[in-house]
């Protein structure tokens, strides 16, 4: 008898809980300023469509599709709104706009324990203090003075390997550019390169980084399932889950080694102190977090964009011919500045960044105190608004025939075009590694087309393999890009 009473009580309480939530969701969906924002009915109640798209690697395309249907401002989940008109994008990202990064960044990077890297810090003031500690190390001046020989050396070795392999069967440019970017950023962060170019394969640290990224993404999207499975005593699973701890231990021992050898030429070096503020003053754990974050942010981003640049050029023989002629004019020991002065290479790079910049979507921000008017709608404070370069870069009113790879469009660009090109983000959170990425890309593209002027795509490469998939970054679905000579 008592059991039946408990059963009815549980049923009653569940019904109350359910009704309360339905009413709360319905109120949110159909009343208040946000209810005026268009979007699919289901997205007013559930984030399932967005979650599914994210897990299937097509978030950016899902959101782009919604913009095509509903306009420049659209509801993508009960809690999140995407806005892609240029004035709103600029307002959200502008310096002093005070739109903090949303909590998604801390969860996505697994930095929810209070020790955050520059990438995930939400608070604008705290972020600007941290960023100041690194801005000198990543300035163009410091790059030219301290890091250019390192980048040049890694680029030469990468292209030499590509050339040899391309002549004798096939070279996967994505793999070699990934090794190159890894070696550069690992030396900047830890004072010692992972030497993946010499090994011709990813280091254990990189494997752990990949596992940690997948783990963090799954924890963000499927938290209940992840909390449950982490107790299963399966060795492979436990090894996978242990990746984050191994990264911390690697970082700790690298920093220790740096101290012992007094090797101070890293991004944390006092050499780069800005008005006495250097990243040297960070705690060891903060440095470990920053180093990990920069290796993640500075590896695949550059390698993927560069790979698409090479692929897109090889798909367009007329572009390849023009580029090959141009890079021939460089002196044999050309510098990154010489390469960046090349007009056509710069047009090709802008076009590759427009269509294939590796971070084209979903930069969520929290609306600051007092709320803000954006795109004709009022957003109360605390609302999450997100922008995406993917849609902005394909706006037909700004870029004629937007889906075509056409470097010539940058011959004499309109102001709208240059304003709308935001592959590195904008404002206070603009990519701190932008100058480094541009240096690597200019040197690598120029060296590749000088050394491999007759390169072509291998017959094994299909267009489908280079279709984009999107897990925060975009990447080729086939996970490789093979060239031959
Ligand atoms: C082609 C290559 C690259 C692309 C397309 C790219 C793109 C971006 C974008 C769009 C953002 C803004 C993210 C946001 O607002 O949420 C960003 C931020 C960032 N990037 Fe890059 N990036 C590239 C290379 C690099 C490199 C080489 C590094 C090396 C350190 C790097 C480090 C960072 C960091 C630390 C941030 C966070 C900056 C902050 O919040 O203050 N990136 N990047």
From TrEMBL:
Cofactors: heme
SUPFAM superfamilies in the cross-refs = Cytochrome P450
TM helices/strands, residue ranges? 6-26
Any GO MF annotation of the entry: iron ion binding
Q: Record's InterPro entries? A: Cyt_P450, Cyt_P450_CS, Cyt_P450_E_grp-I, Cyt_P450_sf, Cytochrome_P450_monoxygenase
Name a Pfam family for this protein.
p450
Q: Does the keyword Metal-binding apply?
A: yes
Instruction: For this UniProt record, give its keywords in alphabetical order, as a comma-separated list.
Output: Heme, Iron, Membrane, Metal-binding, Monooxygenase, Oxidoreductase, Transmembrane, Transmembrane helix
- For heme, which residues are the binding ones? 431
Taxonomically, which superkingdom?
Eukaryota
To which protein family does this belong? Answer: Belongs to the cytochrome P450 family.
Name the PANTHER family on file: CYTOCHROME P450, CYTOCHROME P450 MONOOXYGENASE STCB-RELATED
The protein here is known as: Cytochrome P450 oxidoreductase
Which source organism does the UniProt entry give?
Coniosporium apollinis (strain CBS 100218)
Q: What is the lineage of its organism?
A: Eukaryota, Fungi, Dikarya, Ascomycota, Pezizomycotina
């Amino acid at each position: 008898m008592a059991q039946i009473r408990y059963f009815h009580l549980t049923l009653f309480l569940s019904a109350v809980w359910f009704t309360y939530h339905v009413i709360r969701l319905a109120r949110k969906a159909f009343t208040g300023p946000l209810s005026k924002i268009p979007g699919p009915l289901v997205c007013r109640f559930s984030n399932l469509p967005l979650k599914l798209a994210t897990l299937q690697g097509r978030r950016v395309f899902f959101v782009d599709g919604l913009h095509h249907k509903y306009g420049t401002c659209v509801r993508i989940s009960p809690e999140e709104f995407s806005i892609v008109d240029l004035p709103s994008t600029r307002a959200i990202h502008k310096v002093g706009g005070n739109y903090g990064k949303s909590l998604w960044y801390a969860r996505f990077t697994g930095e929810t324990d209070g020790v955050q890297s520059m990438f995930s810090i939400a608070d604008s003031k705290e972020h600007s203090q941290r960023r100041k500690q690194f801005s000198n190390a990543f300035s163009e001046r410091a790059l030219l003075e301290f890091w250019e020989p390192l980048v040049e050396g890694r680029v030469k070795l990468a292209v030499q390997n590509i050339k040899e392999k391309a002549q004798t069967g096939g070279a996967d440019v994505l793999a070699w550019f990934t090794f190159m970017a890894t070696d550069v950023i690992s030396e900047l962060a830890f004072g010692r390169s992972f030497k993946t170019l010499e090994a011709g394969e990813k280091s254990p640290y990189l494997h752990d980084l990949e596992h940690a990224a997948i783990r963090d993404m799954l924890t963000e999207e499927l938290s209940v399932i992840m909390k449950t499975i982490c107790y299963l005593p399966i060795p492979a699973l436990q090894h996978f889950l242990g990746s984050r701890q191994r990264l911390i231990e690697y970082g700790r021992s690298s920093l220790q080694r740096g101290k012992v050898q007094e090797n101070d030429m890293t991004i944390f070096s006092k050499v780069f102190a800005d008005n006495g503020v250097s990243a040297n003053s960070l705690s060891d754990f903060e440095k470990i977090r920053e180093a990990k974050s920069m290796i993640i942010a500075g590896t695949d981003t550059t390698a993927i964009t560069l790979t698409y640049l090479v692929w897109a050029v090889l798909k367009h023989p007329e572009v390849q011919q023009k580029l090959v002629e141009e890079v021939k004019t460089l002196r044999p020991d050309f510098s990154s500045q010489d390469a960046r002065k090349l007009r056509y290479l710069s047009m090709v790079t802008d076009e590759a960044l427009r269509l294939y910049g590796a971070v084209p979507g979903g930069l969520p921000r929290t609306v600051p105190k007092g709320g803000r008017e954006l795109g004709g709608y009022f957003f109360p404070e605390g609302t999450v608004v997100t922008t995406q370069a993917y849609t902005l870069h394909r706006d037909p009113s700004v870029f004629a025939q937007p889906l075509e790879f056409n470097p010539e469009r940058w011959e004499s660009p309109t102001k709208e075009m240059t304003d709308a090109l935001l592959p590195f983000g904008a404002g206070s959170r603009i990519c701190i590694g932008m100058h480094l990425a541009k240096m690597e890309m200019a040197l690598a593209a120029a060296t590749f087309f000088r050394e491999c002027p007759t390169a072509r795509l291998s017959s094994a490469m299909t267009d489908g393999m280079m279709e984009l998939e999107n897990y925060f970054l975009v990447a080729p679905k086939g996970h490789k890009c093979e060239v031959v000579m």
